[in-house]
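S1.2 Input.
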Amino acid sequence: MTPPDRARVRRIRDRLRLVYGRPFAPPHGQGLDELILTVLSQSTNDRNRDVAYLALRRDFADWTAVRDAPNADVERSIRPGGISKVKSARIQDILRAIDIDTFDADLERMSVAEGRDLLVGLPGVGRKTAACVLLFAYGKRDIPVDTHVSRVGTRLGLFREKAPFEELHDAMLEITPRGQELEFHVNLLRHGRRTCHSRAPKCDRCALLRMCPTGYNLRQAD
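S1.3 Output.
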């Protein structure tokens, strides 16, 4: 697939900016916190993720205590987040695989490629989770591609149809203007949640309709 025209990508960015604003979240430097939060976000909504994360921080003194606790105790704390048996085991496996005391500093000094390699080498951590940590914790140039971003980007013709997620991440990095990684990710995600739904996209209310070949074709078929 030929990469999309950069001017078109900027027009999409600008239209999303008009609808959703320019999200801003300064890097907080807590890579391990972001990693655990992202694991908890899998297959649930933001509210349940946050409830589970806050319960985990309330019930244990620190990440070392989470690592060393009986799995049943960790699982009980994060139960509101769903799939708690899988997530509790994954979190403890991650904590056992790293040096908790140096993890944040190590990630911060690494290049994007080095940090990504470290993260995806951890149990159950994939490219999207790694990108969340690198972008939100450190402001590094990486971009998470979840199901919303993938769906919206594919419908807009930014991605190859049925491309694997590894390719989608590479494509997002290629097309996103430098320094606007967080904005483009968040606004595509918002659009997927609010308008460009999987089964019944609201094409008649979509601010991107004139830029979207999928939406245009759906309207022509009505």
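S1.4 Remarks. Residues 42 and 205 are 29 Å apart (CA to CA).
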